[in-house]
Amino acid sequence: MKKVENLKVKIFADGADKAGMLEMNAKPLIQGLTTNPTLMKKVGITDYRAFCKDILTTIKEKPLSFEVFSDDFIEMERQAMEIASWGSNVYVKIPVTNTKKETCYALVKKLTAQGVKVNVTAIMTLAQTRDVVAALNPNVQSYISIFAGRIADTGRDPVPLMAAAVEMLKVAPAAELIWASPRELLNIFQADDIGCQVITVTNDLIKKLSLVGYDLEEYSLDTVKMFYNDAVAASFKL
């Protein structure tokens, strides 16, 4: 098994808890960070601008993605321009469509033509990937986030799709593919095997990296001990 330090895929931390984000930023293994409105809502953030600007006072070097939250493309553009102005390490997350299923391609083309670094998100098909790639400025750094974990949730194997997407991105050398919403540590190795450049990982999954390569017999014994100790602690009787 490949060691974590030998992986080529870049691991980005995905979350919205300030303490967790700063903890992950301090780890050399973590090469970037992402967040989204859903994660921010879960931790109780109410002032979007204040939260983002506060985080950026510490995270100044590693790429950090913040998402627009309008459903109107004109307002999305305004939000994107403001978000992009917050720092040179900021990428603006643009959803691949709005809630009316209207595509973002024209907006992506307009933003990247102005040098805005985008992270086009919520992608789940190769057709979407192809059209996003066509809209990018080939000279502006960008990310394309395919939600491989959600694809897997539907019973589909995301690996062939992600491998095909890696090939599609070769015409856009400044763009990098993100394996988004992984469900298990194995996904990191799958992403690395196909040449995916980035994988976004939650803090809980990142903390499991110490298990990589762990002896399976020892892990089996650890599990037996867990069951036994929990049964004793619960004072179970038959």
What does this structure look like?
The chain has 238 residues and is of the alpha/beta class. It has one domain (4-211): Alpha-Beta Barrel (TIM Barrel), CATH 3.20.20. The protein contains eleven helices and eight strands. It has an eight-stranded parallel beta barrel with strand order 1-2-3-4-5-6-7-8, surrounded by six helices. Strand 5 (118-123), helix 6 and strand 6 form a beta-alpha-beta unit. The longest helix is centred in the C-terminal third of the chain and has 18 residues, at 216-233. The mean pLDDT is 97.
Number of domains: 1
Strand order of the largest sheet: 1-2-3-4-5-6-7-8
Given this structure, which CATH class is correct?
Alpha Beta
Any idea of the CATH topology? TIM Barrel
Biggest β-sheet strands, sense, barrel: 8 strands, parallel, barrel
CATH level-four homologous superfamily name? Aldolase class I
Q: Supply Rg.
A: 20 Å
Q: What average pLDDT do the residues reach?
A: 97
Going by CATH, the architecture would be: Alpha-Beta Barrel
Count, helices:
11
> How much of the sequence is in beta strands?
15-25%
- The helix/strand class is alpha/beta
The tally of beta strands, per DSSP, is 8
Written as H for each helix and E for each strand, in order along the chain, the element string is EHEHHEHEHEHEHHEHEHH
Extract low-pLDDT stretches. Answer: none
Shape annotation: globular
Please, what is the oligomeric state? single chain
